[in-house]
Amino acid sequence: xxxxxxxxxxxxxxxxxxLDGVSLxxxxxxxHALVGENGAGKSTLMKVLSGVYxxxxxEGEILIEGRPASFRGIRDSEAAGIAIIFQELSLVKELSVxxxxxLGREPASLGIINWSxxxxxxxxxxxxxxxxxxxxVAAGNLGIGQQQLVEIAKxxxxxxxxxxxxxxxxxxTESEVETLFGILDGLKKRGVGMIYISHKxxxxxxxxxxxxxxxxxxxxxxxxxxxxTKNTIIAEMVGREVGDIFPVSKHELGETALEVRGITAFSTxxxxxxLVDGVSFxxxxxxxxxxxxxxxxxxxxLLMSIFGAYAGKTTGSVLIAGRKANIREPMDAISRGxxxxxxxxxxxxxxxxxxxxxxxxLAALQRISGRFITHREREAAAATLxxxxxxxxxxxxxAIAGTLSGGNQQKVVLGKWLLTExxxxxxxxxxxxxxxxxxxxxxxEINTLAKAGLAIVLVSSELPEVLGxxxxxxxxxxxxxRGEFTREEATPEKVMAAAxxx
Amino acid sequence: MKNxxxxxxxxxxxxxxxxxxxxxxIWGYFHWATGQIFLTPRNxxxxxxxxxxxxxxxxxxxxxxxxxxxxxxxxxxxxxxxGIAAYTLTNLGYPIPVAIGLxxxxxxxxxxxxxxxxxxxxxxAFIVTLGGLLAWRGAVxxxxxxxxxxxADETFKMIGQGNIPAWVGWVLAGIAVAFIIARAxxxxxxxxxxxxGEGNIAAALAKSLxxxxxxxxxxxxxxxxxxxxVPVLIxxxxxxxxxxxxxxxxxxxxxxxxxxxxxxxxxxxxxxxRNVIAVYGILGALTGIAALIYTARVGSAAPDAGTLxxxxxxxxxxxxxxxxxxxxxxxxxxxxxxxxxxxLDNGMSLLNVRDFMQDIIxxxxxxxxxxxxxxxxxxx
Lengths: 502, 380
Hints:
The complex is a heterodimer.
Chain A: E1 4-13, E2 16-26, E3 31-35, H1 42-50, E4 59-64, E5 67-68, H2 74-79, E6 82-85, H3 97-101, E7 108-109, E8 112-113, H4 115-128, H5 144-156, E9 162-166, H6 174-189, E10 193-197, H7 201-207, E11 210-215, E12 218-224, H8 230-238, E13 256-266, E14 274-284, E15 288-293, H9 299-306, E16 314-320, E17 323-325, H10 330-335, E18 338-341, H11 345-349, H12 356-361, H13 365-369, H14 376-389, H15 406-418, E19 424-428, H16 436-451, E20 455-459, H17 463-469, E21 472-477, E22 480-486, H18 492-499
Helix pairs in contact in A: 8-18
Chain B: H1 10-33, H2 41-66, H3 74-91, H4 96-119, H5 125-144, E1 149-150, H6 154-161, H7 166-193, H8 201-225, H9 230-248, H10 250-260, H11 262-267, H12 272-298, E2 300-301, H13 309-319, H14 331-350, H15 355-378
Helix pairs in contact in B: 1-14, 2-8, 2-9, 2-10, 2-12, 2-13, 2-14, 3-4, 3-5, 3-12, 4-5, 4-12, 6-12, 7-8, 9-10, 13-14
């Protein structure tokens, strides 16, 4: 009997079917890798397993040692012996390592914490795992990699039988990775079942017993890892036809609108780490340049750096229409004709409590409405055209942005930047989390804008989107350009291989 | 064709009507409870004079709160600016314009200084101005040596105690009415010009009858006593300018954007720190003006002048619908909030409610008002 069985899991969000009948089994002592493109449904599946999405919000069954389980929250799944180590660290930086490990489960009598017992247990746990970490040190004082290892120790202290690791090596150094693998090997021997989510196919093949590939919310295949090759996995990850939703449109290319040379951006946490490493590219008028790469490959940081909006240190130079541009703040970029439809519209794009009109005119307010005194009528008149062409559905331009659907919110952000009359337009994940209809409308608009002579830089985690729209694709891996393809050359396999650093 | 901008007023005007209704209830109750004293021209004139100091500060505070900042130091700055004015007049014997100039300059300089510490150095506004609350109060005590400095100059006292002649009041009312009519007409014409609707000038004029009526009644009531008090005139002027800044300028829109989503504002090319520093400066200037009125009305500068004024101003903004998280609030609401607070003060004093009881009642009303507001918002 398998340790864990997930049967025909279906999870729907408004307008999107994120999981469409996914099944997965995990045996005791098994190392099971879960791979797939960004958005294939891996994280959603793990959120279903951990009770983040409670029982009843999805269809299908979860069986643990043959018995049906229904988790209403993380506490339930933890009680059942499931530990999930998410990509984002969840340690409290101000508390010590020991306090973090036993957070909420402190050894105590009458509410008074037994500190010596806590630190004794923590020390034993860490030594057993072969970690040389002082449990009295504040978690925030450890490096990112060590924090990740502490997080794993914390999960194990709860006697988990099923451990899920989501990209655990992304922030680790080589030696930390080896330590981690040693720990995982020990767990395997103790009969713990592990689900391992990773883009690093070398690791996957080295460690796994079995590999399950997800694509578009479906299980493509589950293989025994022995004899499996990276190319087989990549083919299955991307093996989807680029459908008709991308109207192939030939763009007329003009002169170079934007050129960047040697853009480098340093991490704000670790000033010695480069998130973007010497990236150079050109984009011409009427051209759509796609930037592909996995999450964390530095795509957003690259655009932010060029736009003068990156929080950390950056170097490199930007030329607009052949002339050097000194961009230190977003306003410098805007005044030189760059528009930037940022990722995560709620966080970076919208004033959620304000109206569509307030949002759309914000970046060009002085030109549209008046240098100092504003004129509502001028703003409403200016916004009428983009509201109509983008087909923003709302009762009135005075509707509150936060009440709109995701697709309409995204169109408002796009409309905001069109009103700045840009010559170069950056689009960062322009269709994340919106329904298919709105996606197609945005694709059509991108083609229209390119035909009208805009230079467009498109960042997307959805490979078909990049391949379907871009005239040329550059691929980032760990902050550096690892490949450049024309529309004709770019195949999903080649791009994915460059993105995974193969 | 339906006017496309008609949604503009709905949400905020609804809450304004609700607040006016609350005010009417409070006034009606006090008028009844005080045996028809509350709503006499004499008492209303006093009430308006009493609220003008808080009201002027509340206008600046509202602008600051909308940008998701706060200033706890205004009470101390009021004391310091008033102290500077009195010291300049009485101890140094300089003429009135110098005293006024120095008081305003002190307010602006302190505001800009605290704005720079917040917006440029990144120290939280709460901390910067909490430090300011202590430090500027210390500065007043030092400057005045712990003594109250009297002011003998009758002309200066006019700022706090004078009234404008009745005919001037009517002339100002006439100008205001003409302005309102002109704006109603031009906005309808603009609607038509930009192809947004037919524009209905008759309906727009009908809508203007409410503010026009309010202005005429106000002047008539004030003139029935001694004419519009100078502090009230200054307050109304400040409120109109503040309201205009917030609703009809790019500066005001940027403050709403910064308070609503600072990161989105910055990415849209707004210079967040410059706008925040400017609004601190404006609040400083208004605090200087309030200090002049306060000092002139009392006729002296005392080391403890203006204590707790910051809390009155913040309470007025919050009762008027502003969110301390930023991005939400109107000058009109803040002024109504100040009027409600002043009405409670005035009415309870007339009823001889003991001062500790007044504090308890005012505190409870503040919390209840915001609690009701939050419940109303949740229900949509």
